[in-house]
Amino acid sequence: MIFVTNNPHKLQEVNAMLGGKFSLKNLRDIGCTDDIPETADTLEGNALMKARYIYERYGVDCFADDTGLEVDALNGAPGVYSARYAGPGHDSEANMQKLLTELKGKSDRRAQFRTVIALIKEGKEYLFDGIVTGTILEEREEGEGFGYDPIFRPDGYDHSFAHLGDEVKNRISHRARAVEKLVEFLKNR
Ligand code: IMP
Predict the structure, then answer these.
(1) Rounded distance, CA 18 to CA 12, Å?
(2) Whose CA is nearest to atom 22 of ligand 1?
(3) Which residues in the chain land under pLDDT 70?
(4) Angstrom distances, CA of residue 168 to CA of 24, 143, 154, 173
(5) The whole model's pTM is what?
């Protein structure tokens, strides 16, 4: 099964969740160095666009994911634009800084991470999603992880994803929940 990603952190995260049940390959393993377009305006659209790109060119079963951080007080922004919230060429630091600035003085700091996985298996398309709800902290907490992890505190916990670390995050995250649905589906076939 090909995981349509160039992000080694994500491949490692999802491989850990699969616990050896499936062997995942990534784009490098199939010799794909293309910059795969993700220009849709929904998470579902982007996940499908990436999976279709690989299926059409390589003819292999594959899945792709797309994730967004949806903040209530910002009407769901940055959402599908989470990676480039602070503009093209900006990094996670700039994205987090922009979000903290946008939320300054706002009491409603509710947010959720949402992952959508698009699977193409034997030519058929399937969608799975996973959500984790939580709060945007007033300031960042150091630790592991990537993206908005230092400022997102999942419900039921006292610290950010970054502070909680990969072991906890891999159990409860949006991606974990979507991957669980994917694995359940694959096991039942
Ligand atoms: P992607 O679709 O998984 O590449 O995610 C888009 C953007 O959402 C990333 O560039 C990150 O900024 C953010 N993001 C996705 N997943 C996570 C996560 O698990 N923790 C923190 N930020 C994330």
Answers:
(1) 10
(2) 147
(3) none
(4) 22, 12, 11, 8
(5) 0.93
